[in-house]
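Hi D.,

Good news: the full-assembly prediction came through. Inputs first.
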Amino acid sequence: MDQQESAAASAGSFISLNEHEQRYYSGLHSLCQADTSGKLSSGKVAELFKASQLPPESLHKVTEVCGAKRLGFFGTPQFYVALKLLAAAQSGLPIRLESVTANLPLPRFVGLQNDPEMRYTTVPPGVDGQGLPAPGSASWTPADRTTFRHLESSVDKKESWSPPRSPCSSPPRSPMNYRSYSYSKQRNGTDPQMVYESKHPSRPIVQLEQHSSPSNYGTKATVEHPVIVRASSSDRLDHQGLVDYSDDDPWRITEEQLEYYTNQFKSLQPDLSALILGSVAKNFFTKSKLPIPELSHIWELSDVDRDGALTFSEFCTAFHLIVARKNGYPLPESLPPTLRPGFIQQEADIPDTPESAEPLIVFEDAELRSSQLDQNIIERLQPSIATTKQDLKEESCQQDTTVMMTTPQQKQTLRLDAFPQRPEPPQDLDPQLKTKTRPRSYSSTSIEDAMKKAEEPPTPPPRPQKTHSRASSLDLNKLFQQGAIGVKSGWLPPPPALPPRPTTSQVSHFAPEKTPQNKVQQPNFADFSHFREEEENRVKVEEQGPRSRFGLSTEDLSGTSKQDLIGASHSQAPQKPVRRKYHPEPQNLESVPPPAMFPSHTKPAQKLPSRQKREIQMAIRKNKETNAVLTRLNSELQQQLKVVHQERVTLESQLDLLRPLAST
Amino acid sequence: MAVCIAVIAKENYPLYIRSVPTQNELKFHYTVHTSLDVVEEKISAVGKALGDQRELYLGLLYPTEDYKVYGYVTNSKVKFVIVVDSSNTSLRDNEIRSMFRKLHNSFTDVMCNPFHNPGDPIQSKAFDGIVSGMMVQTG
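Then the structure:
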């Protein structure tokens, strides 16, 4: 026993497995469901042993020799030794450790799940142990190995799988996919067997669908979310190596796809049993960059109840078709059976109930659409699109309820009445819905318009307070937001004493800037010190400068020097183009109490097209910058003028002093 | 049973025209166009009735020596025109109505498609299928 133990312990080091054996054994190893500690499931191992068709005594001997009996479990080395022993026994050699070192063929297992592997990888006894029957089978083993690996890690992949996303180049993959398709033909009967059905009932479908999905989506990198793309690129590569299991893949939705679609659906419509309106779906699917006729065709195929909206299953169908199309599959003329909504419903039942209860698929419209864009762009788009979608959703949800009550129009009520029926199997309702919707749908296009119009009255969700409507102080918003220049920041602390005119405040802000001691572009509080200094300067300059032309409202500024004047004049010049562009702006500029205004402005400022706002903001910013520069320049010049004036005064006094001397 | 089926938009431009004997397409197009006048006349004559399918069906617009032209208008002033061969004498009114009903249904399906902009030529395969079915019957 001791010898055996030591032998078994060192068996691993004895065994020199050639490449094929290595692969095969590792495959079998994974087949036997090794858990984390490396122990193999004894049930699986027993199955494997039984499949080797050796007499039970031999199996017991093998177990004993390899050391598993002693250990009580099959570790990896024990397993490998056992496999070797099995091979030895099958080839007629005695079951002893010494046999392990012999050059053995691979053990043969009959009736096991991995039959195909047996078929292809096991070597007839006479053949050399390394020989695999054909080069084709050699290519199977890597596939098998990857398969096994894949099966092992399928759980992980479930979360991280994102089918079509990977940025890997898609076109080169397509030949592999076709090859995998041909393989699948060969492996038809055995494919389902590859799955560990005992462990995970849902796994078979997962496996089947997973294989379909990689073949479907592995090629096209363009679709879907960049985020998941990065994570799943390696997964997809694994998938690529996998053979396509099911025959009717392209039209079968896998688990991951279902999940993904659920997420997407959720992003459009949080309620799984509710509908996605046609316009919403249109925007979403348009992002996939498929040509409109194809999208139209897809819609025709997937909207089985012809209501102009998509239920969850219809949505899955449509999405799936789009993905397939993007992966190069031609669109079918009629809906494949696996994509029918009823089928999808069944599939949804198969996964765990919690999954089906919650919206599984959340569509990431943004990602689907902007698949061709740069990832950054996609990510940037996502929030915006998500928000718009959310708004639309919220509005449409509100719309549904409000319109239910309020609209007297037949069409709308009919449409809304049809909504509650949606969750039911669409086929059953088809005739009913058709009859119901038909008379209404005569002017169906107006419904969407009406609904859209009705969407507007409901108050939009609370918008960020930063932006304001036209009438409000848009400029001030930008001023506050930007705050890059000190002037803008000067708005923030609007002290009641602050002069309302931005120009003056600008001037006042910059005027002190000219004084070298003062820091340039100080935030708000500097204004006050500036003011005080200004007053001093004003006193100095008073003798020289004319009073300000502008009837600056505040008394602080009323007496300010021509600095203010000039500053104001400077600021007024840039103001003019601004005024041209956007009339309320100067008013905003002049209306000082911005903070007071801000809270009061709860109007949906976003109504203003953001583009215009941005343009206006840009213009304002530029003007402000010019203002700042000019006022600074002005203040400097004023300073110089003052200095020069001083000199002049001193020179004159000196001259006066000298004159009487000269005269004498 | 039809030799030509046409869908004309509200503004009287064609959304869809299909005729079986393709060599005579121009003749059918011309026929359909001239039938629009008759349609307009009937529309104005019908009055303010809405939603009643009976009034949507305009019936025989005008017969010529070779064929008969039937018209149908929807609530949104989209006109369907069917030209049938006069040699098919056994074509009853109900059959024509049912043809129009089918056309209307598939037309609304097309309209429900959010990717279809009203006013665009109809490019739906389903619609084509239905129309072909109607025309193939004629042989």
